[in-house]
Write a structure and sequence with these properties.
heterodimer; A: 167 residues; alpha/beta; four-stranded parallel β-sheet; 5 helices; 14% strand; disordered N terminus; B: 326 residues; Rossmann fold; 3 domains; six-stranded parallel β-sheet; two-stranded antiparallel ribbon
């Protein structure tokens, strides 16, 4: 093994690969906004898998980690604008949580473009559509994250064949 | 009667030391006079740290010969994995003992770097190295007497449960002596079944805050400080004073030892409650305490925390949901 080894090469992008983005949307604003985008027949990228939660304050950082760990290429968290929360201050908790979560994900080598946190109100269907399209393009440029694949190649996971490093 | 059909008088116990510092072996001795009680009912059949046993001795035991086997340390190389699997076969009850075996412990912090980066740092880039030829350890070396083989490094530090089923898990770095004695009485005393699903024992359900004697004044954090930059007011919650304390996200059972000693909790008992992931639990715990009404202010505050990933997962990176870095 020589000195000055380079980082693992970017994996080949499989043909027909499409970014898979998980979107956590609060019921009262962002989900309604996304629903509005559909009702208004706004065209946007079909790459987002929406998970409806009652409040964005419910989105534990663990959920975001779990989404990446199970193969999401990107994660977005959307809630009501500050001051609009149905539960008065649920989104204040989301807001406070995000900077630290972003730092943690960056420390683990996940590009900042793969995680987005935005406020989308019930009337902002257009904004939601634009957000999804924009993020899909950003993630497409970065390529697949393939977290389960990376971990599998290092033998992480119960019952997997362990291969010593470098073999 | 053991599996050979011979009447065995005493229970057979053992302890193995894998990727860990050796503190766990010492912590077992910390049960003090109870050790004499233990020796009356149990006989040590494998304990490399304390007595001269070889792997071949264990391999010669019939399957299921050892009643209770304590395994401390994570799995960093092929030797540790092999022994873990061997001990699983030879033991009725395999116990992950200490934080390294349960959650990866300090060695698992290496998973915050890529395997390539670790190798380069250890053999090429470290300023104190003198390695002009770029020599790296080879798994197999030819020598006049034949081939020498050393254990192979794995790309990541794994927990015991990643390579072999653990019947019980005792967290802590090291596990506290009182809890260990309670657990030994339960397991060795036959009060719980030898085979189990990996239950976490030797700690309590609630967080360290539950045992903490400091007063909570319900004020928000204005500024984060490191322990050498602050003189904390005695009797007042350290986290509220801006000193990162892992108490809210850590299992209790230690009796808030560090906090009573004047320093913040480091989280050595692993994640509390339902959570498996201590770092994200800590993000959830610390964020509502920030005195911030805008995201920018929150970011400004949390940027004062030096190395959150390393601090929040100091002992539990092996149990991180993401498990490693890209």
């Amino acid at each position: 093994m020589e000195q000055g080894r380079t980082e693992t090469a970017k994996p080949e992008v499989a043909e027909g690969w499409e970014p898979r983005i998980v979107g956590f949307l609060c019921y009262w604003c962002s989900y309604t906004g996304a629903d509005g985008a559909g009702t208004a027949r706004i065209q946007y990228a079909p790459n987002v898998d929406i998970i409806k939660v009652m409040c964005s304050g419910r989105i534990d950082p663990e959920l975001v980690s779990t989404a990446f760990a199970h193969g999401a290429d990107g994660v977005m968290v959307c809630g009501c604008h500050i001051g609009d929360c149905h539960y008065i201050n649920g989104n204040h908790k989301t807001m406070a949580r995000m900077p630290l979560l972003k730092r943690l994900l960056a420390d683990l080598g996940i590009e900042p473009e793969r995680f987005r946190h935005e406020w989308v109100s019930a009337a902002e269907g257009q904004k939601f559509a634009q957000l999804v399209t924009e993020m899909t393009e950003q993630v497409r440029k970065l390529g697949p994250l393939n977290w389960p694949g990376i971990m599998h190649s290092r033998g992480v996971g119960h019952g997997q064949d362990l291969r010593p490093w470098g073999e | 009667m053991d599996s050979n059909g011979q009447v065995s008088g005493k229970l057979k116990i053992g302890m193995y030391w894998a990727a860990s510092c050796g503190g766990c072996d010492i912590s077992l001795l910390e049960i003090g006079p109870h050790l004499l009680e233990l020796i009356q009912v149990a006989e040590v059949v494998f304990w490399p740290c304390a007595a001269d046993f070889k792997y071949e001795d264990v391999a010669r035991y019939p399957d299921g010969y050892i009643d209770v086997m304590f395994y401390n340390g994570g799995v960093r190389n092929s030797e540790q994995e092999e022994v873990a699997r061997l001990l699983r076969k030879k033991s009725k009850c395999l116990v992950a003992y200490g934080e390294c075996a349960v959650d990866g412990g300090i060695p698992a912090l290496a998973n915050l770097k890529t395997p390539e980066a670790i190798y380069d740092a250890s053999y090429h880039e470290n300023p104190s190295l003198d390695n002009p030829d770029g020599t790296e350890p080879q798994p197999i070396t030819e020598c006049p007497y034949g081939e020498l083989e050393i254990p192979r490094l794995y790309p990541q530090v794994l927990r015991l449960q990643d390579v072999a089923h653990a019947d019980y898990r005792i967290p802590g770095c090291p596990p506290s002596a009182e809890r260990v004695w309670e657990v030994i009485q339960l397991i060795v005393g036959g009060k719980v079944p030898l085979e189990n699903s990996g239950v976490v024992v030797g700690c309590y359900d609630k967080s360290v805050c539950d045992e903490c004697p400091l007063e909570k004044r319900m004020v928000k954090i204005e500024q984060f400080k490191r322990i050498h930059q602050a003189r904390p007011e005695p009797g007042w919650c350290l986290l509220e004073q801006g000193i990162v304390c892992m108490g809210p996200a850590t299992r209790s059972g230690c009796g808030a030892l560090c906090i009573k000693g004047g320093v913040a909790c480091e989280g050595c008992f692993g994640p509390s409650g339902e959570s498996e992931d201590q770092g994200t639990a800590m993000i959830g715990a610390i964020s509502p305490l920030l005195n911030a009404t805008t995201e920018d202010r929150a970011a400004e505050l949390v940027n004062q925390i030096v190395d959150p990933a390393g601090y929040f997962y100091r002992f539990t990176f092996g149990s991180n949901i993401l498990r490693g870095r890209k």
